[in-house]
Amino acid sequence: MKFVDEFRDPEMAKKILERIHRLADEISPAQEKPLQIMEVCGGHTHSIFRYGLEELLPEKIELVHGPGCPVCVLPMGRVDDCVAIAEQPDVIFTTFGDAMRVPGSKKSLQQASAEDCDVRMVYSPMDALEIARQNRDKKVVFFGLGFETTMPSTALTVKQAEKEGIENFYLFSNHITIIPTIKAILDSPDMYIDGFLGPGHVSMVIGQAPYEFISTQYHRPLVISGFEPLDILQSLLMLLEQLKAGEARIENQYKRIVPEGGNLNALTAVSDVFELREFFEWRGLGSIDHSGVRIRKEYSRFDAELAFAIPNLKIADPKSCQCGEVLKGVIKPWQCKLFGKQCNPETPMGALMVSTEGACSAYYSYGKIETKNIA
Amino acid sequence: MSKRRRILKASTITMAHGAGGKAMRDLIEDVFVGTFDNEDLNKLEDQARFDLSALQALGGQLAFTTDSYVVDPVEFPGGDIGTLAINGTVNDLAVSGAIPKYLSCGMILEEGLEVDLLRRIVRSMRKAADEAGVLIVTGDTKVVPRGKGDKIFINTTGIGVIPEGIKISAANCKPGDKIIVNGFVGDHGAAILNARGDLALEVELKTDCQPLHELVQAMLVVCPELHAMRDASRGGVATVLNEFAEASEVAIRLEEASIPVRNEVRGVCEILGLDALYFANEGKLVAVVPGDQAETVLQVMLSHPAGQHSAIIGEVIEGYAGRVLVKTGFGGERIMDMLVGEQLPRIC
Q1: Domains and CATH numbers, chain B
Q2: How far apart are CA B9 and CA B26, in angstroms?
Q3: Are A280 and A342 members of one domain?
Q4: Same domain, yes or no: A101 and A147
Q5: ipTM (interface predicted TM)
Q6: What residues in A contact B341, CB-CB < 8 Å?
């Protein structure tokens, strides 16, 4: 396939891997603790497992699967809010597919659908708007979810609804923003990350500059990476080269997609429609200041939080659930007490087990035999 | 003198067409009997009757299977629910080594269904049955109120005869066996996803729906001791292989690079974050054959119209009983587990 197969060339991968192994030896020949590299984005986590990359890397490199899957960081209370909206009369609740199975405290959206709620899976917010156009007697709610990657399309959809004067379309904004999240991880006392694989799709929107604080204030390197196996390997190599040289810079491996200054049109649409919330709750990470966005006053008639009664309760994760520690790289998924036992893809306790981008689900579905046998 | 057949004049199915009266007779005689048209069905008895000695002459075991078909949309590129209902049941028989002979056809119709659409589907069934060499000899029709069904549901039950000496079973896989598929995987699942129109993708994807009994018989001629075989319908190739690994208590290792997947299907998978190995197929089988006969079986498959793109995609190995492993293009290895629920597209 054009523009895909080029980035899956096994021979090229072999060459990069040889250099990675060599560099890893040169960086820390006697170091006991492996180098911890966090891939922030769930898309990277998925590719790493899908192509079995982790086992090809030297043991001295430990990949930490970060919080970049928006489904995985969704607190239970938020799912309860979605169900509460979906249960109201004359509502068609629309959502991306992988949010359907995330457990709330009582049920998931998939279960709500089975119990007579009109919950529909859409591929884009524009699909939800089309449902609103076709069902004027219903209230159509779109569950806005995701980082800066999906935020612009939601913003543009709200603007389109405004332009057309559509009165039965609502947005339940659970969009989140990446920079405060990375900062929260760096400030966390119980972890140590040597470098970051920066999210490709988010960076396509925000560009390179917002990451600069990671190098200037925290002295860690970050390489914005694409999602193909060769992208990831090359980005790891770039990180290792920086680490060997004792440098901490922000680099862009994904230049074919990510412009240095980001996408101005997308950023304008986002800032037109959204503003930062003071704080927003993340699953396993707690409340992070300025990490979520809500709809601005100018577009408030589309705001589901104003149009519907929403319980907005904070539901604590099950006590033994260790999603937060996994997200921060403190433990590996299979070290969680529930992994593969009470928590598995059929009966997920934590959202990390639900989405295919979640570290626990990836370990369970794609993981090494040894890991599964521990479970 | 043959009796004149009744004619269905209605353009839409109503509750009357399921009520057992004249309207129902019109529907059955015109649409079903008129189209399927064979001696056994035309008698309109409550059951089909077979001459046992004719069946016994074909082999020692009867194969008996049933399946129900629900699909949205009911018509899609390359086929419709009718072709699925025939080929699906024919293939369930075929992969046991059986020669399919007779089918039943149960129809559940939703009030409001267009009769023209029903006629097209029934004609597809007749065409598919002719191609598969089977007769539809008995049937049943019910009508449910609008909103209580989804246009049309079809159940087909099939009977076939397994020739002497054939013992195919999911529990027969042994280390050293090779895994073969008869062509591109995932076409049907991707075609249905695309036909729903939600994706607005400009790709041409057709179902792979086809009968497999002739291909299977050709394979059995050169390899009568073929170990295991299943058609890879719902759940796809991944599910079949997990079932084999579990039933035989062996491990299976696939070579990802050797699995035939069309570029268009790979494209759909890339965009949605799905895996073609879990997509449904309606004309694909997975066979497990003794290693020393794999090349011979493959050559026979490649020369058959239903197996032009066949490939050896992996092997049965020792250890890790019950697991299916995939060797990626880079030499990495991952587990390919059973799917939980349905595949859901990723958010980004």
Answers
A1: 15-162 (3.30.1330.10), 170-335 (3.90.650.10)
A2: 8
A3: no
A4: yes
A5: 0.78
A6: 101, 110
How far is the C-alpha of A144 from the C-alpha of A173, rounded, in Å? 5
What is the residue-wise DSSP string for A115-156? TT-EEEE-SSHHHHHHHHHH-TTSEEEEEEEESTTTHHHHHH
Q: Do B341 and A145 touch (CB under 8 A)?
A: no
Q: Yes or no: say if B53 and B74 are a contact pair by the CB < 8 Å rule.
A: no
Residues from chain A that touch B344, judged by Cβ atoms under 8 A, are 97-98, 100-101, 121, 356
Give me the amino acid identity at B152. Answer: I
Q: How confident is the model at residue A372 (pLDDT cuts 50, 70, 90)?
A: very low
Give the chain A residue nearest B198 (alpha carbons). Answer: A123
**Closest approach of B288 to chain A, Cα-based (Å):** 23
Q: How many residues comprise chain B?
A: 348
Do residues A163 and A91 both lie within one domain? yes
Kindly report the CATH number assigned to the domain that includes residue A22.
3.40.50
Q: Is the pLDDT of residue B22 over 80?
A: yes
* Same domain, yes or no: A18 and A125: no
Ramachandran quadrant class, A219 (left: phi over 0; alpha: psi -120 to 50; beta: rest): left
Minimal-distance CA residue of chain B relative to A56: B332
Instruction: Look up residue B162 and give its two tokens.
Output: 């397994």
Among the partner-chain residues A55, A150, A345, the one whose CB lies closest to the CB of B332 is A55
Q: What are the angstrom distances between the C-alpha of B293 and each of B118, B176, B217? A: 45, 11, 16
Chain B residue closest to A365 (CA)? B337
Range of the domain at A1: 1-69+192-201+221-229+249-254+321-375
Supply the mean pLDDT for chain B.
94
Which residues in chain A have Cβ-Cβ distances shorter than 8 Å to B334?
A: 49-52, 366-367
> What is the count of structural domains for chain A?
2
What are the two backbone dihedrals, phi and then psi, of residue A31, each rounded to the nearest 5 degrees?
-70, 130
pLDDT in tens, B185-197: 999 999 999 898 7
> What SS3 class is residue B114?
strand
Residue B128: both structure tokens together: 């598919």
